Fold this protein.
Amino acid sequence: MYKIVLAGDAAVGKSSFIMRLCKNKFVNNLNSTLGVDFQTKVIEVDGRVIALQLWDTAGQERFRSIAKSYFRRADGVLLLYDCSYERSFINLRDWVEAVEPYTFKEGTASKIPLMIAGNKTDLRREFEAEGRRCVRTDEGHRLAREYDALFIETSAKEGDYILEAVTELARLLRTTE
Ligand code: GDP
């Protein structure tokens, strides 16, 4: 059982991501104060079956107040931003820097894997059609490279690349054991 912690600004889609992955559902205006702290999902990675615990940091959005306990025993971190809303992308740097100290595995020299995911690609498509400025794929890639993080773009609404995101992250969990 591995613990994956999701973080990022409020409303980027953390709860929706977990709901899509674990229940294959999407709810507009999901009430993120409902529900439990984490959901589990069993996935197959390269022929190996592993169980993931997905932890939502809802209500902890002001990163300075993040409970350390969320990250202390994390095996992987998934940082989300909303690619239709640039502010959440700008704020992602603060998130990476807040979380980085926890990516060092206690008592070892190894680091736990970090993935950056640009969510709401469906909304970006709509917004770009209207000529509105959104966060481009190459901008997300560049940021991830800077922090040695994995990168993916997702849509919790459409279900695009949600399973792929956790599978890619889980693939790295194997090698950090
Ligand atoms: P959280 O605060 O980060 O947990 O964000 P939520 O999961 O509560 O989502 C915030 C809002 O964005 C809700 O109204 C969701 O329905 C919506 N949302 C989440 N993911 C997506 C997505 O991929 N596409 C679109 N269009 N809306 C989304």
User: Anything to note?
Assistant: The CA atoms of residues 2 and 52 lie 5 Å apart. The mean pLDDT is 88. The chain is about 35% helix and 25% strand. Strands lie at 2-7, 38-45, 48-56, 76-82, 114-119, 150-153.
